[in-house]
């Protein structure tokens, strides 16, 4: 026993804070959340087991939920590819040795680091106000801008643009990836007279595939979890007409405005499963298009 | 006709000159492209700052950045724009953020040291469990955590925002540090061990001093995330005296039946100032941190 402790004791001792956190803040809550997802629970009276009713209601009758899925998916599928394409273009321009790269890199990254702040969400509301700066610019070229924030057809686009504005982090990761591609490959292609475009899809894309994949998964997970900007820009409710009612926002309001903790837990599990499925798809499909340089057969 | 050596040289020189001209032209095009992109990117932030100095009636529908009259007053007036001074909110935010940074660095480095350097039974399975928590979205544990803190009587205090940081709840930073600790040469530990150093001494005297870049990265990102955190304070803080800056800013927005936009922008600028300063001074760590791990 003493020997066991001498050998393992220090390890366990260093793990004590993490282990308490793991049980109390992760494992315990995951199990409780899973249980609550099958109950009706309003905090004031004990949870009541209702089996699959939450999920049945959600997918069969809850139009607000189905709408929130649509909003979330539209957001993810438009903002993530847009962001990655933009990040890759800028990274490629920066990569080809240019003076002042540090300066550009810093400025491109700045919006990403501020993007989560409430200040930026407030700023965005004013930029896209009917009398705001975006419409003023559009008016200059003769376009009558819409009521961005009050029109359910347009509100989501303000958030997609906000997300794309924060392309700094995937850009930095692309930049690190581009650095690791050997310049000799391009020199050889140049000598063979290969066009720039061909170089791009025959050298850059395949060799960068692992990095693209990494960025894709990371950005997708992040996009599914968007909350504070949607909260502030929609005034907390997902307005106009639920067009900004992201699944996270719906969950928040169900739990903390209406105290439907059981239903909100069920929503959280749906979100978890969606993220897991998409991460799974990305991993699975990566077999077909991701090429890791060090794996040779 | 035969080509002389001079002809060859002349031709080579001409080709070199064309290349140089092309390179210069493409550099100019690149700079032009990048500079315009940067301008578009940064324009909203510049607009935010300039608007914080404008009179309210000039903020909308006016493309010019330059204030018609500089309203420096927006700053002191915004500072006292809610019935509690923003000094209180900044103090609250600073309190939460500093404790969160300390908690995260200490607890995550503890866990990372155990996983990266110490031998013990069950290490593999505990490590796997930790990696699993990385993938669980916060929203899944949000409600049970709230119920737990409610039971403990911690709602309406800062404890739910601080205590988890001392329990290494951000598995991501544990992972980041493990990656770093693993790169340190093992001979150091072994030599110290032979000299009779305890694991705690090795942690404190060898691992920590050698890992300052990783600890700094964790500290900086914890600072930024906690300073900007909105969901946590939104759920746990209900008394306006306890509000952190983002919550207070949002109340400012919510009460804007009045149109004191200049003041609101002034406070917005102040609220992101600490982050911008951090960014300016610690850019190196931030950029390396992202390239290493995909931090946001």
3D architecture notes:
The complex is a heterodimer of chains A (297) and B (296). With 297 residues, chain A is mainly alpha-helical. Chain A has helices spanning 2-36, 53-60, 63-95, 101-114, 118-127, 133-140, 155-165, 168-179, 183-191, 196-224, 228-233, 247-256, 261-289, and strands at 39-40, 48-49. Chain A is built from 13 helices and two strands; from the N terminus they run αββαααααααααααα. Chain A is globular, with a radius of gyration of 24 Å. Chain A starts with a helix and ends in an 8-residue tail after the last helix. With 296 residues, chain B is mainly alpha-helical. Chain B has two domains: 5-74; 75-293, MetI-like fold (Orthogonal Bundle). Chain B is built from 13 helices and no strands. Chain B has helices at residues 5-51, 74-79, 86-117, 123-135, 138-151, 159-166, 171-183, 186-194, 199-210, 212-228, 231-236, 245-254, 261-293. Chain B starts with a helix and ends with a helix.
Structure in a nutshell:
The complex is a heterodimer of chains A (about 300) and B (about 300). With about 300 residues, chain A is an all-alpha fold. Chain A has helices at about 1-35, 55-60, 65-95, 100-115, 120-125, 135-140, 155-165, 170-180, 185-190, 195-225, 230-235, 245-255, 260-290; strands spanning about 40, 50.
Task: Looking at this protein, list some descriptive labels.
heterodimer; A: 297 residues; MetI-like fold; 72% helix; B: 296 residues; mainly alpha; 13 helices
Radius of gyration of chain B, in Å, reads: 27 Å
Please estimate the helix content of chain B: over 70%
Radius of gyration of chain A: 24 Å
CATH architecture of chain A: Orthogonal Bundle
Tally the helices of chain B: what do you get? 13
Compute the number of helices of chain A: 13
Q: How far apart are the termini of chain B?
A: 66 Å
| Main β sheet profile of chain A | 2 strands, antiparallel
Note the quaternary state here.
heterodimer
Strand content of chain A: under 5%
């Amino acid at each position: 026993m003493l020997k066991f402790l001498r050998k393992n004791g220090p390890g366990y001792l260093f793990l004590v804070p993490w282990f308490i956190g793991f049980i109390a803040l992760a494992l315990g809550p995951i199990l409780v959340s899973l249980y609550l997802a099958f109950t009706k629970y309003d905090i004031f009276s004990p949870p009541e087991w209702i089996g699959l009713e939450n999920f049945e209601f959600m997918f069969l009758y809850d139009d607000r939920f189905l709408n929130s899925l649509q909003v979330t998916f539209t957001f993810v599928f438009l903002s993530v590819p847009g962001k990655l394409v933009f990040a890759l273009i800028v990274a490629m321009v920066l990569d080809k040795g240019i003076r002042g790269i540090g300066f550009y890199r810093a400025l491109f990254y700045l919006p990403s680091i501020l993007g989560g702040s409430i200040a930026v969400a407030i700023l965005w509301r004013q930029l896209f106000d009917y009398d705001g700066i975006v419409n003023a610019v559009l008016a200059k070229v003769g376009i009558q801008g819409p009521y961005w924030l009050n029109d359910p057809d347009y509100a989501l686009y303000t958030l997609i643009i906000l997300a794309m504005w924060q392309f700094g982090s995937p850009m930095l990761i692309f930049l690190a990836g581009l650095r690791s591609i050997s310049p000799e490959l391009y020199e050889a292609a140049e000598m063979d007279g290969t066009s720039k475009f061909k170089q791009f899809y025959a050298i850059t894309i395949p060799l960068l595939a692992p990095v693209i994949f990494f960025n894709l998964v990371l950005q997708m997970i992040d996009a599914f979890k968007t909350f504070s900007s949607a909260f502030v820009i929609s005034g907390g409710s997902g307005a106009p007409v639920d067009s900004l009612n992201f699944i996270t926002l719906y969950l928040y309001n169900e739990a903390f405005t209406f105290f439907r903790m059981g239903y909100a837990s069920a929503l959280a599990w749906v979100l978890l499963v969606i993220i897991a499925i998409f991460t799974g798809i990305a991993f699975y499909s990566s077999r077909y298009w991701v090429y890791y340089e060090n794996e040779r057969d | 006709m035969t080509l002389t050596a001079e002809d060859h040289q002349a031709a080579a020189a001409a080709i070199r000159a064309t290349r140089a001209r092309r390179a210069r032209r493409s550099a100019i095009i690149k700079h032009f492209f990048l500079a315009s992109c940067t301008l578009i990117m940064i324009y909203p932030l510049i607009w935010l700052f300039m608007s914080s100095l404008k009179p309210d009636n000039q903020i909308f529908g006016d493309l010019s950045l330059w204030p018609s009259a500089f309203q420096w007053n927006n700053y002191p007036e915004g500072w006292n724009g809610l019935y509690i001074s923003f000094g209180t909110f900044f103090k609250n935010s600073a309190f939460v953020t500093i404790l969160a940074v300390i908690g995260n660095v200490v607890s995550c480095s503890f866990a990372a040291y155990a996983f990266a350097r110490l031998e013990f039974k069950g290490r593999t399975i505990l490590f796997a469990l930790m990696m699993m928590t990385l993938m669980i979205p916060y929203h899944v544990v949000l409600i049970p955590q709230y119920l737990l803190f409610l039971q403990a009587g911690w709602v309406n205090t800062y404890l739910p925002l601080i205590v988890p940081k001392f329990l290494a709840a951000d598995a991501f930073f544990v992972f980041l540090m493990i990656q770093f600790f693993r790169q340190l040469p093992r001979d150091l530990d072994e030599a110290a061990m032979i000299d009779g150093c305890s694991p705690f001494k090795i942690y404190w005297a060898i691992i920590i001093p050698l890992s300052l870049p990783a600890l700094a990265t964790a500290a900086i990102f914890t600072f930024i995330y906690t300073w900007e955190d909105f969901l946590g304070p939104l759920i746990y803080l209900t008394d306006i005296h306890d509000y952190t800056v983002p919550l207070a800013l949002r109340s400012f927005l919510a009460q804007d039946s009045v149109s004191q936009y200049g003041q609101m922008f002034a406070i917005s600028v102040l609220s992101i100032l600490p982050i911008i300063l951090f960014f300016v001074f610690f850019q190196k760590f931030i950029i390396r941190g992202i390239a290493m791990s995909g931090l946001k």
